Every structure is written in C-alpha cells, then in structure tokens.
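Much of what follows relies on a compact textual record of a protein's fold. With that in mind, consider the following protein and its fold in token form.
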Amino acid sequence: IPGVQVVAGSDVYGIKRERFLKRVTDYYATAEQEVGVELYEDYKDLIARTDIDAVVIATPDHWHAFMAIDAAKAKKNIYLEKPLTFTIKEGQMLVKAVRDNGVILGVGSQQRSDVNFQHAVKMVQEGKIGKIERVNAYVGGPPTPYDLPEEPVPADLNWPLWLGPSEYVHYNSQLNPPISLNPEQNEQFWGGWRWYKELGGGFTTDWGAHMFDIAQWGLGMDESGPVEIIPAGFEDTQFLTYKYASGVVMTEEPFNEKKTKGVKFWGDKGWIEVSREHFLASDESLLPPTVEVAEGAYETKIPHLENFVNALKTKTDPVVPVEIGHRSCTVCTLGNIAYDLGRPIKWDPAAEKFVDDPEADAHRLFNKTYSEGYTL
C-alpha cells in the first residue's frame, strides 16, 4: 500500500519474529528502500514507540481487547482482526477506549469491502426483494472444550505470555502450527485455538464475524441486534436462531447442498444469496454487474486494508468502525452463550444487556474473570 512503511513487529514466538523480519527486510531490499525494522516479544514495547501511527492486531481472540485498549491509550490507530473481542463487556470497553482517545479502529471484516456483498446489501436495503422475512447465514458450529494432549513447549515460545489473560491450558502444536525458516515451511492449517471454548468461539465467531456481519448490515442492524437467541437442539429448534424485533428470523442454516458459508436473504418478492464464491438471485435484475476478480488470497484481493489506510489519511471512520465490529461480534457471542446455557436468552440491544437473566449476566462470554495479574 503506497505511503505505508512497516517498521516493527511483535510476537511471543521467536521463530515467527525471525520470519517477519526476513519477509519485511527482503521486501524492502527488493524495493531498494532502507527501512529499519525492530522486533519485540512484548507488544507493550512496540506501542511505547512514538514514531508508529498504526498497528495491526492479528492475535488469538483472548488478547484482542487488552492489546487494542492499550494501543488506543497509546494513541495508536488500530486494524483489529475479527471477531472484535472475546467477551461482550470487552467490546463495550473497547468502543469507549477508541472514542475517548480519538483513534481510528478498523475491523478485519473484509467482506464489507467486497463489491458482491455490497451489491447484495444494496438490493436488500432498497427493497428490491420486498420485505425481508428471514435470513439464512451459514457459518458452522460452536467451540468445544479443550481436549488436546499436552506437548512440550517450543524453546523460543513464551507460553505464559501467549496465554496472557486467558485461563491456563497446556501447550499443543495445534494451537500454534509449526513453521520452519530453512527451508521455509509455513503453517499448514489455521491455529486450532479458535475451535476451543477456553481460547476461541468456534465457527460461531470465526465465520459469524463475516456472515452474521453481512446479515446485520443488510437488515439495518449495525447499531442494534437481535432480541432473542435460541440454540440449536433446544426443544424442536434445528438451527441456532436469532429473532429481531421487526419479526425477521435469522437461522445459522445451510442454503445449499454444498453448505457454502454465506448469506441468503428471503423477501416477500424474491431472494438473494451471496458468498465469497458466488452470487445468485431470484431474478436476473438483482445480479451485480460483471466484476473482474483479482488473483490471490481473498484477504488481499479485497481492498479492505486500503480502506483502513485511507481512513487514517482522511481522519474518517473506515468501512467497518469499532461500533459495527462490536455489534457483529455481540451477535456471534450471544449465540455461543445460548449454546452454553442450552436454552433461549433474551437481549436488549439498546441497553446491551440481558433481560432478567442473572445466569446469562454471569456467563464468562459476557464478563470474564481473567488470570492473575490481568484486568481491564
């Protein structure tokens, strides 16, 4: 991205710091630029620097709120990966920290910068498929309890710092996939921490932060949310179900045999379904203009990071500011709370609290108790 220099990186895993340094220095050598790059084990040393304008936070979810709030207090602008936070309270606190400190935060929900998803939402919001009655947003299931066997911790991995505010779990390489530098062997799978309750939110937050996010956008719920959440398996409920005050019902339900992760909006005059791979509609007039799709990984061919950098230059909010990221994350987390409790929960989206439900109020995904030495 023109006008951006990468000058520092932080990771608790030594070999990843080395890989980062090699990638960045090789890039600047090829570009014939002289840029000094520093490495840090502790992110606090990085954000203490006065010459850094913005940080990218791409850590496991349990660290998001701590790092982002610290970065905001250090007056750093922030690109934060999704889901925004681990708990709902963390999201509320992060929204306040961002606004109190006058920094810009962009969320890595890059589908909002994808012309196909933008077109789908435009058609829905302009009433082209009539009154919306229901939505299928297929993302996958919730996390499971941590059950991986214990393995020796790599010598250059600071496991206590990796865990940070999280409750203790023993190390397993599925959480931090092995890599090598000579020869270069990158991760062969996603970090498995996301599939376990202690460290992540399963598919509910991992893909929900994308697909529930699009549903929220299409329904005009960016500043609100559902009022009742019913978990799959409760009585005759087949799919995780969200009910909105408008009467719209969103289910975490496949809309095709391939079980494509995506969203299908059903109106009383037609339907639209959209994913990263396809766009279908009940009428040809609803289809987007032909768009040339760039080669490469989805994360980089969609101009989402450029949107964040432009927001820094113009001092305006990016396409997914902190409030939207928080609302979409809340939808995901409410789903996992309902799953955990095994029953419906009622939510007041205006007050951002449960309706007469002390058990939900005390749930760890609403307001978590952290490990010793960590507070927000």
